[in-house]
Amino acid sequence: MAATIRDVAKRAGVSFKTVSRVLNGEATVRPVTRQRVLDAMDALDYTPHHTARQMRTRRSNTIGLISDEIATSPFAVDIVKGAQLEAWHHGMLLLVVNTERDAQHEADAIATLLERRVEGIVYAAMFHRSVEPNDRLRHVPAVLIDCFEPNGAYPAVVPDEEQGGHLATQTLIDHGHRRIGFVNLDPVASAAAAAGRLVGYRRALAEAGLPFDPELVRHATTATDQGYTLTAHLLDLEDRPTALFCGNDRMAVGAYCAIYERGLRIPADVAVIGYDDQEEIATYLMPALTTIALPHLEMGRWGVRRLLDLVAADGEPLADPPAFATPHRLTCPLVTRDSV
Amino acid sequence: MAATIRDVAKRAGVSFKTVSRVLNGEATVRPVTRQRVLDAMDALDYTPHHTARQMRTRRSNTIGLISDEIATSPFAVDIVKGAQLEAWHHGMLLLVVNTERDAQHEADAIATLLERRVEGIVYAAMFHRSVEPNDRLRHVPAVLIDCFEPNGAYPAVVPDEEQGGHLATQTLIDHGHRRIGFVNLDPVASAAAAAGRLVGYRRALAEAGLPFDPELVRHATTATDQGYTLTAHLLDLEDRPTALFCGNDRMAVGAYCAIYERGLRIPADVAVIGYDDQEEIATYLMPALTTIALPHLEMGRWGVRRLLDLVAADGEPLADPPAFATPHRLTCPLVTRDSV
Questions:
Q1: Which of B217, B224, B259, B330 could form a disulfide with A283 if both were Cys (CB 3.0 to 4.6 A apart)?
Q2: CB-CB under 8 Å, A250 with B281
Q3: Quick one: what percent of chain B has pLDDT higher than 90?
């Protein structure tokens, strides 16, 4: 049976009223006491927001966004922008806290947002990956953006990597290419994207009746020159590819250097398609880079919309966690420029 | 004589206690009343934070960061990271609100941060420019980052563009170059950076006894292919430059394409130096781009440190606004890679 607020009070050794104060985010509770109450909630697996919301006298009209490492994937801040636009649209303020993937900062950030009575939290990763948020996130309605919890503990939205890989490959096939090199992302660091896109690449080839040649697929590791080096390897093959699918626009920068160094033209000799639609790269390359966009803005919007649904349904039982087991996938669209 | 809290109450037609509630950020004040009080403060040019702070029973340990258009200059989010690191260092939480340069969002953001009892606000632009923040910013200690108010109404920190332009040019001169092309930023849209760097470029040439040749200086406009096009023009000069100073790393991407297209090598035939140290570009180019870094992280830290000084001095008279007339300038360091 689910723990009640009285169970929490008993375990924490405080009054019902004190627990209620913590749930209401009142700052009159001493930090050490608040910590005891939160620990008791954790231990009892208590999900307080149904009750807490009913105890509240007014709405805060505020939601929180926790992002993991904004500085390392700056182009993904469109997630923040999308979340913000959707929040504004519903008359909500979005408070953003970055954690730089530090566990203590994350725990603090969640606690502080709860204190500020946020009605819910969106938790955003700056690249598609598996996450294990601090358990305290269970204390409010929460939605994951550009990441997923392996056990499906939260609703989540991610890019449809397989569809994107398929679209990139199909686009090159549609332009008459038959030997298509694929400089894929790091299969460990970027597992979700790398695996999904490879499936899409292979499916597009198969649908067109083209053979899958493992020699045409290279995987980048963390070294930043892999776009250049791996492209150089592919171009120096005896039967070199006439088109390249690069795992991101940054690697396409290196690919351009390798192609031009060999006196080849883009797209006449080698067509190039990127991934990410990182505008400050794609539009500055010459010719401008055709690429597959990540739906950052849309994921931000979707996440907040889903969160507000959860908030609105508050007091009602949530769907069982298994309902969240499969993240919602958003389409990665083609952005046509001049490199294919 | 400075307006008092009683003047504000009188003008707003509310009680002293109501004004005090607004100053304390209590949510029990009706929005329409709060608006009346804030309007009265504006009209009376009332700077409440001295009094307000004394009325507060406790510190919020929270500061706000308002940023203008995070999505258009994503690499500048290191400002947010620096501000956050410094805030954490002092046990403060940083609440971030983005406005996308929308005046109403900015006014709302400031009001909401005040409601949440922030002890001060840093106001960050995502590229070096002149700003006119909403007047309500005067209601708390505030510091501008990567921007300045033309009348010096706030303390501000910006990059030292002249020093950076000088360092870039000097670096190329030190490598033996005598004809140095300069693909500068848009002189209107990026006035502060473009003008400062040109002064630095000319000073470095003069110090080395080199002539200033206006033909070697080109200015980009908003079109994104300017790095490519302007470099092509410079390389096609009869007496072409042996080195290029690009106004940002994005333009260097276009410059590389133009250089390679002509069968020239970097740096053997043409050396290239960029500006910004936008890592995801600079490290993916081949050869990796030598560039001048913008001190985003340091500006974020400096801004919060200065803000916390102001907060600590609260109740004491602030320095006269003219003291802020000259923004504090932070050095733009050289990041040596392989293109010079």
A1: B224
A2: yes
A3: 54
